[in-house]
Amino acid sequence: MRRNTWIPWLGSGARAAAAQPGWACRARGRARARLGALRSFAKLLPALGAGLCACARTPLPDATGTHGAVAAAPLTPAPLTPPPALARATRAERAAPEPRAGSRGEPPSQHLFWIQVGESRLALSFDPSAFALPPAELMAWVERCARAVATYYGAFPVPELEIRLRVFDGQGMRGGRALATRPPRILMDVGDASTARHLSHNWSMTHEMVHLAFPSMASQHLWIEEGLASYVEPIARARIGWLSEDDVWKEWLGNMHQGLPGPGDRGLDHTPTWARTYWGGALFCLLADLEIRKRTQQRYQLRDALSAIVAAGGHLGVSWPLERALRVADEATQTTVLADLYREMKDQPVAVDLEALWTTLGVAWDSGGVRYTDAAPLALLRRDFVLGPGVAP
Q1: What is the rounded distance in angstroms from the CA atom of residue 128 to the CA atom of residue 378?
Q2: Where does residue 351 rank: exposed (0-12), middle (13-18), buried (19+ CB within 10 A)?
Q3: Are 262 and 184 in the same domain?
Q4: Which of 211, 236, 270 is the last residue of a domain?
Q5: Residue 178 CA: distances (Å) to CA of 34, 80, 86
Q6: Is 178 part of any domain?
Q7: Are 251 and 379 contained in the same domain?
Q8: Residue 290 lies in a domain
Q9: Residue 9 pLDDT level (bands cut at 50, 70, 90)
Q10: Cα torsion for 339, 310, 308, 328, to the nearest 10°?
Q11: Is position 176 within any domain?
Q12: String of b and e for 135-173 (b: at least 16 CB within 10 Å)?
């Protein structure tokens, strides 16, 4: 057990007692299954090779039915199929099966629309006939999400982005994926009967765009990628007037406790549950943001640290060790906050007294709304926490 002394509302933690029973047997079973599959595939190789050779010797017919050169076909957008290893799922949908695009059986008819956000160019593709909403509404929604992210970081984090909207029968969004392709790509499943209200109340596209602004991590660090996207997304939307300050604090007051360690927790790097990945990562970001502001007398905030990572070439399309990203971020704020907090929370559960934290910030539930106490010790830090410096709530 370790005792944290540098942040007052961090308490003690304990390591998990033992590994899960039966793990070794399950691992051996999986290994045998994979070996059998490889042997079966090896037996098919000679036949596959013969088939490929025969195809190579057969000339293709042209439009007249004779063999020879093939006339050029009209260009169509390439199918945007997500490599499974690079998929980034949204909060609630990460463990759910991936919905199929074009589930109604009709052939896709993708149209390409261009959106300019500062110096960045977004290529948005979807079938206009598949949605009840007009194309202009869908474009405005995507542009608003991109503008929120650009406002938070100071600029949109990548120069080019491909976005494909895939349709399903229904309303709202079923999930999204941010892919580390070149250029990066976002896939979003949108209901054909979605309304403007569904778009306005959904966070998924902004969440996926925030992923673009952080390097790809090893699997044990997924919590920092999802935690950052979960933490930054509502702040980014609030800073363009999409959400109110109350909206953001309501989300944190109502959900941040899900990121606290539970029984058997082994720290952020070793507890890949949904709650610890998303809300545990978001809690890490909240604590880091607050501590950076405290140590620097409000000269810096987490946004400065994250923007420095983007400026140093860190984005979804590159893989960095987490230590490198935290070092770049800490140098930008002239502190060691992120490295210190990661060292404290990576391998062990660290209790956080959220009630004490909210009281110190001067924020609390009040009849379904939010009550602010300006006499609280850290109320001055709280006032520009969501909307930014110099912006009145």
Answers
A1: 49
A2: middle
A3: no
A4: 211
A5: 28, 11, 8
A6: yes
A7: yes
A8: yes
A9: low
A10: 30
A11: yes
A12: eeebbebbebbbbbbbbbbebbbbeebbbbbbbbeeebb
Is 25 within the bounds of a domain? Answer: no
Same-domain status, 332 and 287: yes
Average pLDDT of 23-30? 42
Instruction: Tell me which residue of 7, 6, 119, 1 sits closest to 352, measured CA to CA.
Output: 7
| Range(s) of the domain holding residue 130 | 84-93+109-211
As for how many domains the chain has, the answer is 2
pLDDT tens for each residue of 136-165? 999 999 999 999 999 999 999 999 999 999
Residue 195, CA distances (Å) to 57, 129, 170, 199 in order: 53, 15, 11, 7
pTM over 0.85: no
d(CA 199, CA 196): 5
The model's pLDDT over 316-372, given as tens digits with 9 standing for 90+, comes to: 999 999 999 999 999 999 999 999 999 999 999 999 999 999 999 999 999 879 999
- Averaged over 54-62, what is the pLDDT? 34
- Where does a domain end: 168, 185, 211? 211
116 & 182 share domain: yes
Q: How far is CA 83 from CA 119, 201, 388, in A?
A: 28, 29, 37
Q: Are residues 362 and 256 in the same domain?
A: yes
Contacts of 200 (CB under 8 A, 6+ apart): 141, 242
